[in-house]
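Final report, section 2: Outcomes. Of the targets proposed, non-specific serine/threonine protein kinase is the one most frequently requested by collaborating groups, and we therefore present its record in full.
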Amino acid sequence: MKCFPFYIADKKDESRTVKTTSVQSTNSTFTDHEVGRSGSELNSQNVSGTSTESIVRPLFPSVSQRPSNLRVFTVAELKSATRNFSRSVMLGEGGFGCVYRGSIRSADDPTRRLEVAVKQLGKRGMQGHKEWVTEVNVLGVVEHPNLVKLIGYCADDDERGIQRLLIYEFMPNGSVEDHLSARSEMVLSWAMRLRIAQDAARGLTYLHEEMGFQIIFRDFKSSNILLDEQWNAKLSDFGLARLGPAEGSTHVSTAVVGTMGYAAPEYVQTGRLTFKSDVWSYGVFLYELITGRRPLDRNKPRNEQKLLEWVRPYLSDGKKFSQILDPRLQGKYPIKSAQKLATIANRCLVRNPKSRPKMSEVLEMVNRLADASSETGSPQVLSFRSTMSTENSQVNKTKNKRRSIDLRGGESGWFTRMWTPKLIRTC
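The predicted structure is given below as C-alpha cells.
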C-alpha cells in the first residue's frame, strides 16, 4: 500500500504557534556538536504540524530527563555497517528517507555482531527533522516487547553536511502490510492474525495507559507494524507521535497528520487529537486482517475502493459475511471467530469517539477471542511462487508519499451516519 501522511493547518494559527514553540526537548536529544547548530535552525524556520500543546510543555520527556540506553553513532561507523549505504542492502525508501540493513558490534559483547536497520533522513527539511527528533525522544524513553527497539542515533557531520540517522533492531519478517499483499508468498494464518492483533493492541495499550504520560501514536497502520524472527508484532515509526493532553484537557489541538484511510474522522475534521483516534485506526486495521484489503485502494472498482464502505453491507447477513474474508486464507478460518473480530472492530469504529473503548478494553476482548479460538498455527507458505520481479517488490515497499488534504476534507464514516468524503488534492 502506498501510504502518505496528510496535513491540515490553518496558516494563521500555524505561524502563531511556531513563534512561541519551545525547543528544549529537541536540543536535549542531540550530540554536543549538533546542539550548537540545531537550536537556531529550529527557532528560525516555520515548522508545519506543530502542536499547540507544545507551547505549554515539551512534546515528550526528553532523553536528558529520563534514563536512556541509546548509543550515539558516527557517520563513519554507519557507513561501515551498511557498505557505505549501498543500494544492495537497502530495505526500502519512504518519505523519511532510505532504510538500510546493516551490522554493528554489540555493546555488551564486542565479539558479537547485531543485525540492524539504519534509517537515513532524506533532504525533506524541517518536517523530517522534527520526525527524527520525535523518534529519538519517544523510543529513547519507552521500552516494551511490542515496540520496535531503537538502538541508537547519529547526528554527525560529513562532507554532505549534517547527517541524521536512526538505528533500530532488525525485523527480518517485514511488515504486516507486506504479508497481506497479494504479492507476498507468505500467507498469515487466522491464528497468526489474531496473535498480531493482540501484539498491536498490547503496544497501543502501553503507550496510552501504562506509563506516567500518554503517547498518541497518530499513524497506526499495517505498514508500521513489523514482525521479528518469531513473528511477534511490534509498532514502529513514531515520527508523528504526540504527547497526550495535559491534565484537565480533553484533547491536543494540532495540525492533522496521519494516513488516509486510517485517520479518525473527527480528528480530520477538527484537528482535535485524543487517544481514541488511535482506537479508530486499530479498528480499521482489524478489517485489514479480516479482508486482506487496504483501507483505501484506488485500483479496486469504485464501490470497493474504501474498505469500511465496502464491508458494511456484508456485516448484517451471516450468510454473506464470508464473502469479505481474505480469499488467500482459502477458507481456513473459524467463521465465528472472524465475526467476533469484526464486532470488536465495530466497537472501535463508533462515530462518537467518547463511545469507543479504551485500548486496554479492546485488548481484553481480543485476548478472550484468541483464547477461545481452537486454531493454532503459523504463517503458511503457499504452493505457488510469486511472479513479481525484484523491482516491483521494491516498489511495493515504497510508502509514506506525502499528500495534503483541504481543511474541510474528511474520511468516510461508519454505519448509518457517515462523514461526507471531500476532494483530496495531491501536492
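The domain at 174-375 is CATH 1.10.510.10 (Transferase(Phosphotransferase); domain 1).
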